[in-house]
Design brief:
By secondary structure, this protein is an alpha/beta fold. It folds into two domains: about 5-110 and about 295-320, Quinone Oxidoreductase, Chain A, domain 1 (Alpha-Beta Complex), CATH 3.90.180.10; about 125-265, 3-Layer(aba) Sandwich (Rossmann fold). The chain is built from ten helices and 15 strands. It has helices at about 40-45, 115-135, 155-165, 180-190, 195-200, 220-230, 255-260, 270-285, 290-295, 305-310; strands at about 5, 15, 30-35, 60-70, 80-85, 100, 105-110, 145-150, 170-175, 190-195, 210-215, 230-240, 260-265, 295-300, 320. The chain is globular. The two termini are about 15 Å apart. About 50% of the residues are buried. The mean pLDDT is about 95. The structure holds NADP nicotinamide-adenine-dinucleotide phosphate (NAP). NADP nicotinamide-adenine-dinucleotide phosphate binds near residues 241 and 267. One of its GO terms (molecular function) is oxidoreductase activity. Keywords: Oxidoreductase. Its EC number is 1.3.1.-. It comes from Brachybacterium fresconis.
Length: about 325
Amino acid sequence: MRAVLIEAEGADARLVEDADESTLSGPVELDVLFSSYNYKDGMAIAGQGIARRFPLIPGIDLVGRVTGSEVEEYSAGDLVVLNGDGIGETRNGGFATRARVRPDALVRLPADLSPERAAAIGTAGFTAMLSVLRLEDGGVTPEHGDVLVTGASGGGGSVALALLAGRGFRVVASTGRTDENAEYLRELGAAEVIDRDELGAEVGKPLQAQRWAGAIDAVGSTTLANVLAQTSWGGVVAAYGLAQGMDLRTSVMPFILRHVTLAGVNSVDAPPDLRERAWDALAAELDLDLLDSMTTSIGLSETIPYAQRILAGETRGRTVVDVTQ
Ligand SMILES: NC(=O)c1ccc[n+]([C@@H]2O[C@H](COP(=O)([O-])OP(=O)(O)OC[C@H]3O[C@@H](n4cnc5c(N)ncnc54)[C@H](OP(=O)(O)O)[C@@H]3O)[C@@H](O)[C@H]2O)c1
């Protein structure tokens, strides 16, 4: 099999054309059809603490066709999608032509989605939907007012923006690349595009003017602190990322005076019923033309240099990895 391998902590990742398949383990064996590129994959390849066993095949997503199974739920020919569940971190992942995985977090590919589009959605898109569901479950509706998406040009942000606009929300997109990406973000459904410095340059007062009925945050840190301080009474902020930083210097004021909910989002360990709910909603709601317009495709051979680009915030939207290239 072809695979990207990180052989030891601190070692450079490399593409191996004849990697040893017997190193794979897990009851469901697959031909990987596509993987996708996430911020976390960039961190793994750059040696920034994601890989937690060695040797490791990175890639936190895969879409594949089952070729054999030791469990009765799956059989040869089934098309499946797997996001997280430790692949690309503590288990071998999707940057390879073959995989063996545990069945726990596998989801059957929804009938209307091609394998390539499911990979384009990937962990970032799946996480975006989990975040939208947090707003839904918290009772945030378009009638409550504007919703904010931070890190809007990124993979999670782009999908979150398209999903919220599709649900009828007036969405404000925050980006550090207004000149380059404002038109792209409007095409995805943003009613307004703001510069991320407006939210993230420094932490402001614990309570600020109420601007957001809800927010989906990819970046954490100063930005998230200010977003909480600007969230309206009863609003919900779904936090899934740390692109600006993992710190959060906030106060209890938004929670005790404005009834605000800070809703965490974790895709890696999401239970099966939540995975199915999110994938069904993605298949039903995500505009596939918009998905295509935000998707770039690269080959397995390009995954190693791509790490620096995603970590530098130079990529836009979602990136599919064609493991045969
Ligand atoms: N909780 C989970 O389960 C989960 C799942 C997936 C991802 N994540 C995390 O979510 C984050 C986003 O993931 P992704 O795959 O969407 O990554 P991505 O495609 O690289 O997007 C991240 C975006 O964040 C913005 N950004 C980058 N550096 C920033 C900074 N210093 N300050 C403010 N904004 C910055 C950029 O958007 P603009 O150029 O538009 O400003 C960038 O495009 C990452 O931290 C990732 O690890 C978590």
